[in-house]
Amino acid sequence: MTATILDGKATRDEIFEDLEARVAALKEKGITPGLGTILVGDDPGSAAYVRGKHSDCAKVGITSIRRDLPADITQEELEATIDELNANPECTGYIVQLPLPKHLDENAALERIDPDKDADGLHPVNLGRLVLGKEAPLPCTPRGIVHLLRRYEVPIAGAHVAVVGRGVTVGRPIGLLLTRRTENATVTLCHTGTRDLAAQVRQADIVIAAAGVPGLVTADMIKPGAAVLDVGVSRTADGLRGDVADDVREVAGFVSPNPGGVGPLTRAFLLSNVVERAEQLAGLSD
Ligand SMILES: NC(=O)C1=CN([C@@H]2O[C@H](COP(=O)(O)OP(=O)(O)OC[C@H]3O[C@@H](n4cnc5c(N)ncnc54)[C@H](OP(=O)(O)O)[C@@H]3O)[C@@H](O)[C@H]2O)C=CC1
Ligand SMILES: Nc1nc(=O)c2c([nH]1)NC[C@@H]1CN(c3ccc(C(=O)N[C@@H](CCC(=O)O)C(=O)O)cc3)C=[N+]21
Ligand SMILES: [Mg+2]
What are the residues facing 36 on neighbouring strands? Predict the structure, then answer.
């Protein structure tokens, strides 16, 4: 058996087409959505992600607002930039690129973002709204994962999902999304304290690998026909590597490649959160 590829780039192109039309409609009403990024330091990986986000904005017609700060900035200086974007009417949503240099307080920075401008959906107020089932910008990577599964008609309701990783950007919030009544999956969140990772993964109809450990999920762990989403990214001597070993696609029914899977959708839903916020401001939605 060779797995069906869950094509993140083709799916991203569909989302961009929809967003382009919605941005044009907003501009007719005199509103231009604007995405801000705050990047601290010169990590090449983070700089590449931020560049990608701004080139996506150009494709869809969203204004880009970039704040690049030196690695040795103080917490006060970082917070002054956050306050500036909170007050800037051109910026309808923004992100603080993670991770921040170690001397800065990541949680304090995230909490200072105006929850209404939280394009990542990672502000505690918005995570709390998600827990309560209230409307909020959704975390982009989990939203991308659910969209990709639906797009390829992978059954979610009643499925057993094993998530590898309990991080704030992927593992923890994907558990929240997939256990909503609208998804109805049963989720096991695995982490470094999990006694037998292989046994947990082997029971799963859907596996979401978000640990950041190259090749952690191997073919022998996969139930034949399962859907496997490769989300984790590591920079190794031989380039970018996902969490899923190549031979998994000989056992799985569906595989999202890495690159070319969930990554492009993370970026698409970042823009989508910004457009949705602008639509609220324009009175085009509730
Ligand atoms: N493709 C995309 O669009 C995106 C990819 N990413 C990538 O996804 C990955 C996860 O990111 P994030 O959610 O921030 O999580 P973190 O990087 O903060 O945490 C990683 C998690 O993986 C767990 N883990 C690490 N090693 C193992 C192991 N051997 N067995 C089981 N669990 C393990 C850790 O467990 P413990 O808690 O016990 O330490 C932790 O919960 C990263 O590689 C990140 O770069 C992130 C965002 C978007
Ligand atoms: N505040 C914040 N929000 C994030 O969402 C966030 C973050 N910080 N820090 C880092 C991680 C990582 N991340 C990725 C986004 C896109 C790709 C992506 O598009 N990857 C391409 C390949 C690389 C490329 O083409 O640029 C792909 O998978 O095909 C990957 C990883 C978001 N993150
Ligand atoms: Mg990390």
Answer: 65, 94
